[in-house]
């Protein structure tokens, strides 16, 4: 069984980093809640869409070292290894940001995975796919024949081009989305392991 994982906001948690970067640049008040969504919403309502786009390039590039793995994701990979399940990372990620300095976002993502020991937990470097468009991301998920794919964006899982036979798993730690018949919604990596691996162990 091959399980596909999204990267940004699924493997990597950026909440505190985005808040720190925005405060450093005077883009949001320090009292704003330290979540990526709060920073994004404040900047957009303040007419700072371009600044928000540039901030993402910094967070996903040179400052990604200050981000952190989502709690439980490394343990999830360990459980996959124990259960004999393989893991691939498939992300929609351009090589360079849309605005600002031309940081290498692909190199930054690989460095994050290495720095946090993901390549010591059963993830192979040749199973990390950073695709320049959403269409190519979905095509890759299909080509890999993933049994399941975990993503934090419900709109990605709802895409008409999403591979029909791949189980859709929505990573929703903020519990912000409602239930859906076609999507398995989990609020933690522990719950994700329960949804994807426990049934496999029982079946084995």
Q: Give the helix tally.
A: 8
Elements, N to C (H/E): EEHHHEHEHEHEHEEH
The mean pLDDT is 94
**Percent of residues in helices:** 40-55%
Class of secondary structure makeup: alpha/beta
Strand order of the largest sheet: 5-4-1-6-7-8
Report the portion of residues in β strands. 15-25%
Inertia-based shape: globular
Give the assembly state of these chains: single chain
**Ends: how far apart?**
12 Å
Largest sheet: 6 strands, parallel
Low-pLDDT stretches = 200-204
Q: Count the strands? A: 8
Q: What is the C-alpha radius of gyration, as a whole number of Å?
A: 17 Å
Q: Could you provide a short overview of the structure?
A:
By secondary structure, the protein is of the alpha/beta class. Helices cover 41% and strands 16% of the residues.
Notable traits:
two-stranded antiparallel sheet; 6-stranded parallel sheet; alpha/beta; 204 residues
In terms of topology, how is this protein built?
Elements: E1 2-5, E2 12-13, H1 15-24, H2 36-45, H3 49-60, E3 68-69, H4 73-83, E4 86-92, H5 105-115, E5 128-131, H6 134-144, E6 148-151, H7 154-157, E7 167-171, E8 183-186, H8 189-203
Parallel strand pairs: 1-4, 1-6, 4-5, 6-7, 7-8
Antiparallel strand pairs: 2-3
Helix pairs in contact: 1-2, 4-8
């Amino acid at each position: 069984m091959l399980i596909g994982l999204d990267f940004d906001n699924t493997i990597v948690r950026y909440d505190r980093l985005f808040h720190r970067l925005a405060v450093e640049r005077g883009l949001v008040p320090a009292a704003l809640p330290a979540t990526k969504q709060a920073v994004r919403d404040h900047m957009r309502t303040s007419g700072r869409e371009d600044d928000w786009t540039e901030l993402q390039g910094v967070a996903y590039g040179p400052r990604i070292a200050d981000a952190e793995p989502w709690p439980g994701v490394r343990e999830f990979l360990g459980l996959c290894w124990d259960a004999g399940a393989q893991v691939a990372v498939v992300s929609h990620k351009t090589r360079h940001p849309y605005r600002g300095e031309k940081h290498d976002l692909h190199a930054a993502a690989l460095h994050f995975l290495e720095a946090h020991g993901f390549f010591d937990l059963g993830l192979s470097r040749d199973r990390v796919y950073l695709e320049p468009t959403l269409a190519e991301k979905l095509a890759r998920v299909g080509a890999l024949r993933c049994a399941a794919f975990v993503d934090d964006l419900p709109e990605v899982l709802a895409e008409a081009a999403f591979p029909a036979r791949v189980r859709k798993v929505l990573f929703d730690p903020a519990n912000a989305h409602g239930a859906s018949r076609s999507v398995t919604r989990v609020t933690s990596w522990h719950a994700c392991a329960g949804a994807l691996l426990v049934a496999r162990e029982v079946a084995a």
